[in-house]
Write a structure and sequence with these properties.
Strand content: 15-25%
Number of strands: 13
Order of helices and strands: HHEEEHEHHEHHEEEEEHEHHHEHE
Distance between the termini: 7 Å
Bound molecules: zinc ion
Number of helices: 12
């Protein structure tokens, strides 16, 4: 989940902070507090697919570094899930603090929550614009959404509510492969993946002070995943159940083979990528269970650490 050094050091810091200091009547030292706060948290906001599973919201992941959240994809329910994660104790994650969003591709299951991320935090106090990075077509989608809610934005900004006009500004950035974002907390590298007939679909690598994270987005098997992970701390990859696929009609199987990655295919990719932890996300079960999907990964030959993500898991 993180580099070995931090794995050993952090529990010791936590022990000092949570047990020893209060016992000794000493307030938590500033350096301990700072070390704890610097930890990168990866929050699985939505681990679902277009199937409307009430336990798995639409695809969305937050990476929180030094109290600043960065959002990846915005499936249905994303802003409520952000609020839930905050309630669960992820301090840096609130709807108002979402100022940067990365979109893997424009499929509806990954973008139905885009108007929600644009508008709901603006109503409740986001201080400024939303910066959004994603594929070709993002500019157009953004301007259509703003147009669809034009009357709402007008009445909120110019009416009795006296809303902050700056909070309703959205800056879309259509990206090219390579480093697409950099600040003191992280460097973000985009790489193209193969999502069937989509003209553009992106995977992302996030490098923070204490963690490297690769998010596959939706993709059929692609070598870019292993090339970009290379022993990364966390590889979050989409997958479908091989056994589940066989229960589908033949023409549906072909579609999914071209657009997504099977457990057998992911086992090979992950063996090459060597992540410290593989996180199965956006899982198409088709009647199979989380346990059987993990078992498929094992029987396909993956020997590394693997978990199947649930909504609101934090890594
Ligand atoms: Zn997709
Ligand atoms: Zn999807």
């Amino acid at each position: 989940m993180q580099n070995r050094d931090m794995v050993i050091r952090r529990p010791i810091l936590q022990l000092v902070a949570m047990v020893l200091l209060p016992v000794l009547g000493v307030a938590q030292s500033k350096s301990v507090a700072k070390a704890l706060a610097a930890k990168t948290q990866v929050v699985m906001l939505g681990t679902g697919t277009p199937y409307a599973d009430p336990d798995r919201f639409g695809p969305a992941t937050a990476i929180v570094v030094n109290g600043t959240p960065y959002l990846v994809d915005c499936g249905p329910g994303v802003v409520r899930r952000i609020a839930q994660a905050h309630k669960n104790g992820v301090e840096g994650l609130t709807p108002q603090k979402i100022g940067v969003l990365f979109i893997t591709h424009l499929h509806s299951d990954h973008t139905v929550g885009y108007p929600d991320v644009m508008l709901s935090p603006a109503v409740i106090g986001r201080p400024g614009p939303l910066e959004v990075y994603g594929p070709k077509g993002l500019d157009e989608m953004t301007s259509y959404i703003l147009k669809a809610w034009q009357k709402d934005i007008d009445i909120r900004v110019n009416g009795m509510e006296k809303g902050n006009a700056k909070a309703y500004v959205v800056h879309p950035h259509e990206i090219k492969a390579g480093v697409v974002y950099k600040d003191a907390n992280m460097t973000v590298t985009a790489f193209p993946v193969k999502h069937g007939t989509w003209d553009e679909s992106w995977g992302y690598r996030f490098d923070t002070p204490d963690k490297s994270i690769v998010i596959s987005g939706d993709t059929a098997p692609t070598e870019a995943i292993a090339e970009n992970c290379q022993g990364c701390d966390l590889l979050i990859h989409e997958v479908y159940s091989q056994a589940g696929l066989l229960s589908l009609p033949a023409e549906r199987r072909e579609y999914h083979r071209r657009f997504h990655t099977s457990t057998a295919e992911l086992a090979k990719i992950a063996e090459a990528a060597q992540p410290k932890l593989l996180v199965l996300d956006h899982v198409l079960f088709w009647g199979t269970t989380p346990e059987s999907v993990v078992a498929e990964m094992r029987s396909a030959g993956y020997s590394g650490k693997v978990v199947l993500a649930n909504d609101l898991d934090v890594f």
